[in-house]
Amino acid sequence: MLGGALLACPVTEPGIQEIKVLLPGSDDIWYDIHSSLVYNGGRTLSLPVTLDTVPVFQRGGSVVCRSVGSCSCTAELRQLPLSVTVALNSQGTADGELYLDDGHSFRYRDRKAFCLRRFSMLSGRLLCRPAGEEGTFDCNTVIQSVTILGVKSKPSAVIVHASGAKDISAAFQYMETCCTLTVNSVNLKVAMDWEIQIR
């Protein structure tokens, strides 16, 4: 487990063509992050693998942020945009947090120079809000795309509302076969309040 949201199952021996993966939590659902297929927890899967494949699953009810692209140092990493993956649980909700600081100093401790944001999905609305009262860190990190796993039907519209701006009807892709909604090019700043509403 990587935190409470991700389960990675690496191939650790040469010649292995199949691994067994126990998905914890009989009440949980898990999404394969590569295929977006959904699995019930509390069971063991047999998965075909190679040395180049690493099965990774995201727990339903979680929100995970990932950097888009690659870099060679921490300073460059802070410049990369993020993608947000929302994995809905059986009640259609999810939440998670994102922490950012300058990546190299003790200002997070001495001056409370950090940004802690909470992402919450409830009733078809994804909200980005402060996770607490502490922390003042100006960052230009943006959310490039949002993917929501477990959306049961194609929405008629996706509306993006950013604090201090007009609502925007966003272009989106819906894949019915894996119940996945993707909204690209949202370019929303992590440090400001915003919401995405699915209609």
Automatic annotation (TrEMBL):
The processes (GO biological process) annotated in the record are: N-glycan processing
Which InterPro entries does the record associate with it? Glyco_hydro_31_C, Glyco_hydro_b
Q: Name one GO molecular function term.
A: alpha-1,4-glucosidase activity
Q: What's this protein's name?
A: Glucosidase alpha, neutral C
| Record domain Glycosyl hydrolase family 31 C-terminal: where | 1-64
SUPFAM superfamilies in alphabetical order: Glycosyl hydrolase domain
Q: Which domain of life is it from?
A: Eukaryota
